[in-house]
Structures
1.
Amino acid sequence: MTAAVPRLEIKDLKRSYNGRPVVDGVSLRIMPGQVTCLLGPSGCGKSTTLRMIAGVEMQDSGTIHVDGALICDTVFRVPPERREIGLMFQDFALFPHLSVADNVGFGLKKGTRAEKRARIEELLDRVDLKRFIDGYPHQLSGGEQQRVALARALAPRPRIMLMDEPFSGLDNRLRDGIRDETLSILKEEDTAVLLVTHEPDEAMRMADEIALMRDGRIVMQGAPYNVYTRPVDRAAVAFFSDANLLRARVEGALADTPFGQFLAPGVPDGTDVDIVFRPQHLRIDFDRGGQGPRPTATDGTAARAVVERARFMGNESLVEFVLDHDNLRLKATVPNVFLPQPGSVMWLTVRRDKCFVFPVTGGRDA
Ligand SMILES: Nc1ncnc2c1ncn2[C@@H]1O[C@H](COP(=O)(O)OP(=O)(O)OP(=O)(O)O)[C@@H](O)[C@H]1O
């Protein structure tokens, strides 16, 4: 059996500006029909990676292969227009003086007039804009223009689509629909997609695989569920949601906290660990005559806390607490409406199976 050939494979791409590494050894494989999201904070090197793949920027080292064929290393370089790569950016611009049909057909070089027209009609039909075929961009809404831009990018049947924050210019109501529609068309066309975003929600919604990028490197990669539930470090937890943090010192593979002891297998004595958990994994119990719930093996010990603030967020309520033990602030989210008075005493327990324990490395991890 032969191993499947990735549609796009980049190996150890590096790029520095003025001696500062901006992309520092990025490797990725994307199969046909697969959507990979490059997710990371502003300035981590996502767009630079995309520009190198598109061919508008040269890497200092590393290789790019499409369907197994080399398209770029440090000596050999297929020019951007011959890479069969489609591009969609946030500030996509349709040509204002061209009709919708001519915009979509702009990149179509091969085929007869009739064949080109058929492809334009097919794509406009797919994005549900065939009625505007002879219209002009200024007659369309932002969302409609975005769909024309998608049809234009898809017209030449690119093998790969590179998308850089393509939906961030759209208002929230339009965004979800266009995102889902775009995704299903790209899947139907079997295009490999590399989507750059700094929004975790967008990545979770779109991606088959997420590559989490920080400081020019991919720090973890996998299916959205795995990246969310098995984060590599504290910053990876915090990137997806609010996170609570308990810091404790390890003695005998155990870390002592106001919530009881946590296992820290393999962590040497005297090492500090961060115990990190999301606000939805803090359980709240009412005070019963100065007592909290009994300790259990799954939830450990309850810790006494005072409500500092409670806010209704729509689907859930966010309650902020101060722990009696050490004045640590913790956040809890509760479904629906739960708005206890500030100053109320409550007892908190953490879902131990949802906690992550990371040794404190001393390096930058937030
Ligand atoms: N041509 C350039 N010359 C010098 N520095 C550059 C150049 N292009 C990008 N940079 C720097 O490289 C770093 C990474 O930029 P890049 O645009 O790849 O980040 P990004 O992750 O896409 O960020 P954003 O989400 O804000 O677009 C930034 O610090 C940026 O200032």
Note: The helical segments are 46-54, 100-105, 113-126, 142-154, 172-188, 200-206, 224-229, 234-240.
2.
Amino acid sequence: MSSKTGNNGGGVSPSIRTALACVVAYLLGVALSPLVVPVDYFLRNLVANPPPPRADDANDTAVVVPRRPDHPRVESSSSSSSSSSIPDEPPTTAVPPLPPAGGRSHLDQSHASLLDRDSRDDGGVDPFSDVDIVVHRNGEPDPCSRQRGGAPGTTTTTTSRALLDSASAVPETTETETTTTARSGDSKHAFDAMLTLALTGNVASSSSSSSFPALLHDRGEGCGPTWTDPRAHDDAGGGAGLPSMLRYCDMGANRTTVQSDHELIVNVPGAGTRPCHFHTREGVRITGLGQLARLAREAGIPTTTTTSGGECAGGELPGDGGTCDATLTRRRELHLYAVPAGRVFMFAPRHVGEIFELKHVSVPLDLPVWLEVISLSPRVFDVFNFFDREESAAIVVRALAETSETHRMKRSSTGASGYNVNSKRTSENGFDTHGKVAQAVKRRCMTVLGFDEYEESLTDGLQVLRYNKTTAYIPHLDWIDDHQKQNEHDFDSEHLGTNRFATILLYMTDLNEGDGGETVFTEGWPVGVDEKDRIDFNDAKTALRESGDVAGILKEDSWEEQMVVRCRSRLSIRPHSSRAVLFYSQNPDGTPDQKSMHGGCPVISGEKWAANLWVWNGPRGGFEGSPKNQHVVERNRAAGVSQDNNQKKASFANTQTDEAMRNAQLYFQDTFWGKMGYGDPTLNVNTYKGHQWNVKVDEKTVKTFVIDDRPQQTHTI
Ligand SMILES: O=C(O)CCC(=O)C(=O)O
Ligand SMILES: [Fe+2]
């Protein structure tokens, strides 16, 4: 079932008439859809239980969503088993109690009281007394290192000791963003430095006289860079002497994305390198010691085994029989996901069907938001209860009412320089940058992705998409490829550039099996289908043709027909109103994830409305601090144009009235751009005020166009 677009209207202008008709038709569609869809998808989500599996659709290549397990923290058991590769060290001997508070001249008293059992009101239980810290690299389900086993809490734990020691080593910082002076560890940036230092231990330096051991049993050697790090062998630069984890946390001058808080980063004392920032498995950024202590208290339930009649341990009083009940407590685990400075948190799924409960994300209906893993490679997740039907309808209504030339719904374009209408993207799109719902959804999206603060420079406006019957969007990467570095903006996210990092796709209409319109991930495989039962392209094509489903609708061997074949044999997501899906376009190291290739399948029946939100790994073009290709900037400066302020859209067409222009060609200055002769398609470009476009015939310039002030301009010969 999907809403149908009406197109008859009264005496108003045709575009407003169409828009109004669409609004009414869409609302009717939304209002009626629960009556037509047997079990309404969203209502199913209203009950706290997850939706039932969708395996009942025999021919449905859409994802089969397994049930939510009763104990969603699947990670703790699996990670402890997977952690077998990391050798556990025998527990260290008990650490002496902290010195009296007065003796801690460097320490903020508030930190000390968080950890110091003597000064706590709750009986002084050290929050880390039976918890081991386990570290993962960003996006990795397997830990890379773990804490050496600590002594259970009769006294201050190794963890508290290390945290307090490292807190004392982090200098006082001034947080310019809050204009308050914070003591060491009070700011999230100082906290990052402190935790990184505690995990890896202090690095000998002339200025640090004290020495204390690393919390991690291997000082984080297992958590080294996953990319080739030139500093590993660079004795002169000191890189080789650093624990590997420090080289992971500080990706180096050529790879540390410059975020808006770059200047606030506090280096790891002794090492002088940038620290990691740390997130929970669910993406929550850990910004202070109090929060870390809270997480430690909440970390899982310890497994205990009790044997009676044992010997009494030191300090334990014997029971009636003169013996002690020895309670063997298996230590709990606090998993931290370490993200290099300047980089962005990424979920670390282990298996399809895995759940991530996002208790920190609030939505209008106060329903729990959770992720369910649809695919590991590409990384794709369903985001349950991300938005509701009301918001879904509001997005469509606003898109239809939009009249501004830059934002209204119109034939889609693609590419870094945007404006080229593409024959392989036949849908329509528009942008919602200021709508109330769009704003709310953008903020929610950032929270889901693990940002502790909203950052406008990291998101595009909400892009709204409409697909009518037969329209589609050929498989592509959302990551923008500018490998020749032709743009002022530097898109090379592996290094200092920024690019699209993650996409949240929102669906606003219900499409039934056979209606088409799925989002297909052409490198992914359908869930729940055995490897041996996967269908190859040719068999799927034969089956499609035999079914006759697209006969008379799509041309044989057209790219659209080929897409339907893929949509029916590869991982595809069927739209439902208020369904949201998250996927990543980059790997954790910033390289593009080629497996994230995806497209919008041709709509066979009805209409599809969707929207996407692209989140970048750093400031996108036009925002302060966005990375630039300096050579292009210089070139433009020499040509007297500034790209940021003067971008224009220009179309060049041949009216076929001047015989001398029969074989004309368009050049940007002296660079060939495209054929502009009789019968050649209009050339659409993004260009800049003052740019010169030359028309040449037989290599001689016959006409020059200079781009003027108009935002959109057409030049003809
Ligand atoms: O419509 C879809 O399902 C996908 C849209 C998409 O990939 C895009 O707009 O980048
Ligand atoms: Fe896309």
Note: The chain has 13 helices and 31 strands.
